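tmp note - Ribosomal RNA small subunit methyltransferase H
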Amino acid sequence: MGKRNLPESPLVNAPHIPVLLDEVVAALSPLAGRRVVDGTFGAGGYSRALLEAGAYVVAIDRDPSVKVHADRLAAEFPDRFTFVAGTFSELDTLAAPYAPIHGVVLDIGVSSMQLDESERGFSFMREGPLDMRMSQSGESAADIVNGLEQEELANLLYAFGEERKSRRIAQFIVAARESAPITTTLELARIIEKAIGRKPGDAHPATRSFQALRIAVNGEFDQLVEGLFAAERLLGEGGVLAVVSFHSLEDRIVKRFFDPDKGGPAQSRHLPQVTLDPRRWDPVAKAIKPGASELERNQRARSSVLRSAVRTGIAPRQPYYDQLGVPVVRGAA
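out:
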């Protein structure tokens, strides 16, 4: 399959450039006449490519702001595109009326259009309310920042953001909020920069903390795990699941989900052999990262990884978390 000439594509002018698009389409091919769930619809980049390849697409998203993009595709592909509001963690239930489903694609994390909308509060580079809610409902980032005890806040930043200086950051946040609640993105970013400093050429010091807060607000790790097992329940033998993730914590979960035996303790020939659980996914494709040309077009693709695998006929598992390496916030209720 040849590469798309994205610089001349209308997708480049869209609010979100889909990452590893050609690789995702290739992983799910052949697509003509097959039914695919796009569990993280966003601006519809993956859905459009799948539709153009001849697939029937059931798109899912919890963000009300994506409606305009869904309406556009529904008008262009009225017989092959359906949008369902909801979370991809329940994709098996949401897509059940459209079965059989032959493929699922998930693009994990925040979309470019969410980052670019200052009023959504995802970005530390733009002034906006400290919000970060993908569904635009429920607990906000401001609620967490102003409500958690110092130790629990530090543990959250460390577990979900891998922020090594989480305790110092939490200390500065708690001191700052004693005067007045922290309500904006730039206010929080300045507090974090004051706490840990900033070296020229390094990533912004608030990067990991904002990631941690976004994950906590949206329950992203729970969503990911539940979505993976939902896809396992939904897809029959031969179905393909393709997952694009954007940082090591997510990628580790996906990797262990597809191949739970990898990374386990080696078996000794001197001890009774452990019977391995039957494989639900086989073959598991090699992880794919973006090439130089894609990175030149879209710097937001730099940390992305695509993992895909084919469903076997073995019955689905009950969801579990511990063996997948899902981070746990110590001290959380």
